[in-house]
Amino acid sequence: MSVLVNKDTRVVFTGITGKSGGFHAKQCLDYGTKIVAGVTPGKGGQTFEDQVPVFNTVADSVEKEGANTACVFVPPPFAADSILECIDSGIELIIAITEGIPVKDMAIVKRKLLESNSRLIGPNCPGIITPGECKIGIMPGYIHKPGTVGIVSRSGTLTYEAVWQVTSLGYGQSTCIGIGGDPINGTSHIDAIKLFNEDPDTEAIVMIGEIGGDAEEQAAAYIKENVKKPVAGFIAGVTAPPGRRMGHAGAIVSGGSGTAEAKIAAMEDAGIVVAKSPSDMGKALLEVWGK
Amino acid sequence: MNIHEYQAKKLFEKYGIPCPKGAATSSADEFEACIDSIEGDFVVVKSQIHAGGRGKGTFTNGYKGGVKLAKSKAEALEYANAMLGNTLVTIQTGPAGREVQTIYFTEGADIEKEYYLAILMDRATSAPVVVASTEGGVDIETVAEETPEKIFKQVVDPAIGLQAHQARKIAFQLGFEGKQAGACAKLIFNLYKMFWETDADMIEVNPMISTKDGGVSALDAKVGFDSNALYRQKEVVSYRDLNEEDSKEIEASKFDLNYIALDGNIACLVNGAGLAMATMDIINHVGGSAANFLDVGGGATAEQVTAAFKIILSDENVKGILVNIFGGIMQCDIIAEGIITAAKAVNLDKPLVVRLEGTNVEAGKKLLAESGIDLIAADDLPDAAKKIVETVAAAN
After folding, report:
1. Which domain CATH number covers B168?
2. CB within 8 Å of B53: residues ≥ 6 apart
3. Distance of alpha carbon A209 from alpha carbon B305, whole angstroms
4. Do B381 and A97 touch (CB under 8 A)?
5. Do residues B299 and A156 lie in contact, with contact meaning Cβ atoms separated by under 8 Å?
6. The last residue of a domain, from among B238, B261, B284
7. Quick one: CA dihedral A74, A80, A81, A85, positive or negative?
8. Contact, A86 vs A70, CB < 8 A?
9. A278 contacts in B (CB within 8 Å)?
10. One domain, residues B85 and B145
11. Residues B209 and B311 occupy one common structural domain
12. A180 in reach of chain B (CB within 8 A)
């Protein structure tokens, strides 16, 4: 078992004919992901890697190939449009890898998501993987192995670090979700934690955050009230200089939160074992899990 | 990206946001012409730097005040000459301060009362939020802490934008009445239009004022823009002032590298912002200190990696380099080629620890091993951090 994606997930890859999109679509195919279609406007009728049909629109991929999940891999100026197209086409799960989408575009996307049945993961994220079944995104497949640890993180490469530590200690993952580092994203820490909490085959959870916003504090509050499964965590940015990306008014709306210290305190208060060093994420998991 | 107050005021005028008339110059020869263009008995002389707290700031030569009210044209000229070319230190500049390269002259305002007004992109609601307060001209964080009831917020639906009734509500919450409430609502409405159309991520007007003749006016302006949206904001980009940025950070931005200078002596080159922060954290955790934050991003080329090496080596404090790559979208063999090209191009003479993992890792390690470059390979993150910190400590 797993959350959100598995061996039956039917993926449409937007931006499949691009250099980077093509490379990673191939990697996903090689991993065993069912990529049933690609979309590049104007290139409909082509075939990717001699096996994946390319369409002009996402709607065509849904109608003709039964796509239910999308991986958005188009450049930032066109990415919000691609996500909106996926929503309009009834795609249930949209994973947006693109980094650098204007925040205004994402505010519109978020508004549209609220009145749809689609879920967005990302943008600016590594994607989602259920090891051994389905990889949608840019993470290196080999570092993962099937198992029972659910991992959620805002960072891409730091997630790989956590996964690699867990795998190296001999444990596998149910599903790993990279929710992305942008200020406005589709799926939050708390959403991912809820999914892992309800998944019978996820036994333990690793939550990795970083400075800024208060998503980790909210997730910690949720965990304190609702989650009995062991949770380990890490917050990146203890040594980051304050104020580099935050304005005055931002500090009002987020209250006093956003610092690494505030996040770590909220997480520890919720019974989460927080690794002091990024090299100890795996160890923190074993500690809280009693392994 | 931030802009100067006088540039923000140009945008204000374009969007019909009332503000005191003014003129800016970087040349002392033009001071008199600027001052002559100001109507009224008073002239406000304002140092233009990208930092708040200018009025209470002190110049490094001891001169006090980066914003001054002059009661005559001669006085205005005297103030401007004292400020231009000197370095102003405020609570936001750090001890090094910033050199004042532009002076902005404005007419004096007939202030009745000061208010606070801001619009920003709020991550909690994923929408723009208008923030207003009856307590203007003071530190807004203090107001939020001590008298939160004096702060009003209006979340805006991004799909339909700020509505007239929402702008009116804020004006009434601030205590405006009659025609003045209408003027305030219009100011807020136009400010939102500017916020949305220019891809701003924050506009702060502190203070906004009511005037004795029944008007409202944006006395100060602090505006920041979403750097992801600059590709479609030509006018905003034309306002970029490179003098306000760290030279290494400017160089980094030319190559799409995310670089922030820090105080330590171990440079790091990492892919991904989270891992870059975690790398700084672990360097500190094992007793070292990071010289920078550097995220080479997703698809870095050999050219970008070479540029990254040049930038981190231009920092005189750097005694060693840690490269930490966990390849996902980034392929390890490409970063390895970049490291090899860079090490040869810059004549690397400082200890270099490289940790590679992820996509195409074997090809990357092989390239490095065969390159003949003098580097220390590390197996994992703690090993890499320990090796660079120990090597740097031993060499010094």
Report:
1. 3.30.470.20
2. B90, B91, B92, B93
3. 27
4. no
5. no
6. B238
7. positive
8. yes
9. 275, 278-279, 281-282, 381
10. no
11. no
12. no
Query: What is the extent of the structural domain holding B75?
Result: 21-107
Cβ–Cβ contact A102 with B under 8 A = yes
Q: How far apart are alpha carbons B111 and B42 in whole angstroms? A: 13
The verdict on residue B208 lying in a domain is yes
Q: What is the pTM of this model?
A: 0.90
In angstroms, rounded to a whole number, what is the distance separating the alpha carbons of residues A283 and B280? 20
Gap from B118 CA to chain A (nearest CA, Å) = 7
Whether A102 sits inside 8 A of B226 (CB atoms) is: yes
Residues B368 and B375: their CA atoms lie apart, in Å, by: 9
**Tokens 């910690």, residue located:** A220
Residue B94 scores a pLDDT above 80: no
- ipTM for this prediction: 0.89
Q: A136-176 pLDDT, tens per residue?
A: 999 999 999 999 999 999 888 889 999 999 999 999 999 99
B380 contact partners, CB below 8 Å, separation of at least 6: A279, B355, B357
| B107, B136, B167 - which closes a domain | B107
Q: Is residue B15 part of a domain?
A: no
Residue B141, classed as helix, strand or coil, is helix
Shared domain check, B229 and B317: no
B268 & B351 share domain: yes
Distance CA B320, CA B318 (A): 6
Spatial contact of B335 and A145, defined as CB atoms under 8 Å apart: no
**The pairing of beta strand A93-96 with beta strand A69-72:** parallel
Residues of A in contact with B359 (CB under 8 A): 27, 140
Query: B83: domain CATH number?
Result: 3.30.1490.20
* Active-site residue set of A: 248
Q: Which residues in A lie closer than 8 A to residue B94 (C-beta atoms)? A: none
pLDDT score, position A244: 56
Which of B140, B196, B326 is the closest to A160 by Cβ? B326
Per the CB < 8 A criterion, the answer to whether A215 and A209 are in contact is yes
Please indicate, yes or no, whether residues B305 and B388 belong to a single structural domain of this protein: yes
